[in-house]
Amino acid sequence: MALYTSFDGSITRKPFWLGLLGLFAVGITIRILTVPLRQFGVWVGLLVSVALLYPALALTTKRLRGRANIRLWLGIYFVPGVLLNIAQALGIGFEQMTISGMEITLPTGWGLILSALAGIVALVALVDLGFLKGKGATGCIYP
């Protein structure tokens, strides 16, 4: 549980992947359980994202220490996704569309650009944190 609640220490790739899979499983489970709340649309998605933000920040901070990266990367990795969630919840760059009786939110204009940016940053973060080997405690540049 300290993997999600503490910002202390560093972790290697294996605990990072296990933690990431745990967050993914919790996120999917919450999304499935909130299907009856579909009338609230993207706000439910925003609340799920906010609920998982703290554990994701804790997990990522520890992995960044294991990679000996600077804290700036934490902001670089999270800001585009947070902005994307907020823009989607506020309907900025997104529009609601009904397809086969199901209402979905689609990006348009700025939403497409922000979605692409967030996707690229997510891929870079996944490679950096999930696939590249850590530099160990001696390479750590902050406590």
Please provide a written account of the structure.
This protein has 143 residues and is mostly helical. 64% of the residues lie in helices and 8% in strands. The protein has helices spanning 2-5, 13-33, 42-67, 72-90, 110-131; strands spanning 94-99, 102-107. Helix 4 packs antiparallel against helix 5. The chain is globular, with a radius of gyration of 17 Å. It starts with a helix and ends in a 12-residue tail after the last helix.
Main attributes of the structure:
mainly alpha; two-stranded antiparallel sheet; 5 helices; globular; disordered C terminus
Summarize the structure.
This protein is 64% helix and 8% strand. The protein has five helices and two strands; from the N terminus they run H-H-H-H-E-E-H. Strand 1 and strand 2 form a beta hairpin.
